[in-house]
Amino acid sequence: MPGPADYPLLEQLAAPADLRGMARPQLHALADETRRFLVHSVSTRGGHFAAGLGTVELTVALYHVFDLERDRIIWDVGHQAYPHKVLTGRHRELGSIKQKGGLAPFPNRAESPYDVFGTGHSSTSISAALGMAVGAALQDQPRHAVAVIGDGALSGGMAFEALNHAGTLPNDLLVILNDNEMSISEGVGALSKYLARIIGGRIYSSLREGGKKALSQMPAIRALARRSEEHMKGMVLPGTLFEEMGFNYVGPIDGHDLDALVPVLQNIASLKGPRLLHVITKKGKGYAPAEADPIKWHGPGPFDPDSGTIFKEKASGPTYSQVFGQWLCDMAERDPAIVGITPAMREGSGLVEFSRRFPERYYDVAIAEQHAVTFAAGLACEGLKPVLAIYSTFLQRGYDQLVHDVALQNLPVVFAIDRAGLVGGDGATHQGSFDISYLRCIPNLVLMAPSDENECRQMLYTATTLQQPSAVRYPRGTGPGVAPVEALAALPVGRGVVRREGHSGLVVLAFGTLLTAALQAGEQHDATVVDMRFIKPLDTALLLRLAAQCRGLVTIEENAVAGGAGSAVSEALEAAGLCVPRLSIGIPDRFIEHGSREDCLEAAGLDTPAILARIQHWWGRLAATHGPSS
Ligand SMILES: Cc1ncc(C[n+]2csc(CCOP(=O)(O)OP(=O)(O)O)c2C)c(N)n1
After folding, report:
1. Nearest residue CA, atom 22 of ligand 1?
2. Helix H or strand E segment including 498
3. Taking a C-beta distance cutoff of 8 angstroms, is the pair 121, 426 a contact?
4. Is 505 left (phi over 0), alpha (psi -120 to 50) or beta?
């Protein structure tokens, strides 16, 4: 087991400013230590891995050249920022990343002054860095603003909106394109192909080959030529897209070659206006298993660093993502109109099998949630049945498209909303806390929340039978273990199911995942318990029937209380003129930080004991006020 003695440079590093005074051999040694440290640290608890291995040299070079006490460096998405955390005084805590109370999964302004902008969702870095560059200029502050963005994140529309703006401004902005030709899966799209053409460009290659031959006998000159090659390329290559957009384009250069990176960064830092440095890196660099399979090593669990074996979590049944993936394959087999769409989340959304079996009906649209939604709308216009697999947190990006392009035109797009509710280690940026609130106010939309795996499958099927937009929101991980029934049967829309008849006058309405806790409360208090299934349309008939007879009504959901399913119930009661004591249990009005999914549920007061205690307390007080039930 490696210890502090194995990382002497990291141990001595008091502040990132120490890197500025380091000589080149020390920088090399530090990069080597950082990489070894990452392998060891992530192997113990898991975390984002392959992307960070690819940014080791870039981070070392950046922090040697720039002054982090003054300059602003923003890591887009931030999953590749582990070397940044290590080199900015947090290496001893890195093993706690994503765990409860540990380091945040992504850069976080509350965690370190060197995390100058919180990230997690992609494609924000250029906008934020431009804002900082303009802010510095308006306040006469001489500081650099740098955005480091991956080729995957560059596919997000916001990145282009920012380039479009920055290219016309005089402000000093440096964009570093960290190009490893990968998103989580393989890079897709025309931009990805364009970048590949730059790297493999015929002009670039032939110059390089010719030059190499001519200079092979003269090592000193060859080294010099290699450095000036970057400049030459800039001149010889036809104007790049970035040049056309007003950026001074430099590159591509090898992002693992510290000796090339440092002088290029020094030079480019001295230039003015918008600049873009294109660096080529390898995802998983320096750890053979991750280099060989960067998709598998994007965010592994704990692993054995020597053998490269990732320890498997004990599977207690299929995850909801797998239930979705299986359902989509089954549907595609029986219905040629089904089309599956993902904004760059093939693996996470359970679409690997579908992409293999139905490649002609599978679309990875890159990290482009807005486009994904409107693309689905277009397909629906042509009579196809688009199913958009999207995480709750990322659907936030496509909100206007959902309202304006899908719902307003009443187009039958199916939204399979994964990671709805609390997600765990990815923390506050990724919690699916809000989708019920932001969806249930949209006319025409049917919104469902399954309480188990089979209900999820049947709801997805129900969605495809509708002539209007619909969404099924399901959580991360596994459910209670109800095996999905192969046969598909549409559920009656807007109908809940009474799961327990009680006699105490207490009614518990569960919306989705937390039905198990609701049933336990039912047992404790002899309550009536309903699996509501639909948030919209709400089963108002059932609700009003129960409300007319009950003495207290509790709603439970894994969504923000504000505007959530409980609010829908209150609105329906109010509209009917019914006044029933109400308790809404859901995610409180604050961001829930990282931890395991169980930790997050606990932090939100949504673990079973907390739910039971709240109901007990509330119902006890109510009974004391109003006396025993008649
Ligand atoms: C808006 C948004 N959509 C999807 C994701 C999920 N995601 C995290 S990293 C990533 C791939 C990023 O690729 P790239 O920027 O090239 O970085 P690399 O991992 O290749 O270094 C994706 C899709 C996200 N973080 N934000």
Report:
1. 184
2. strand 497-500
3. no
4. left
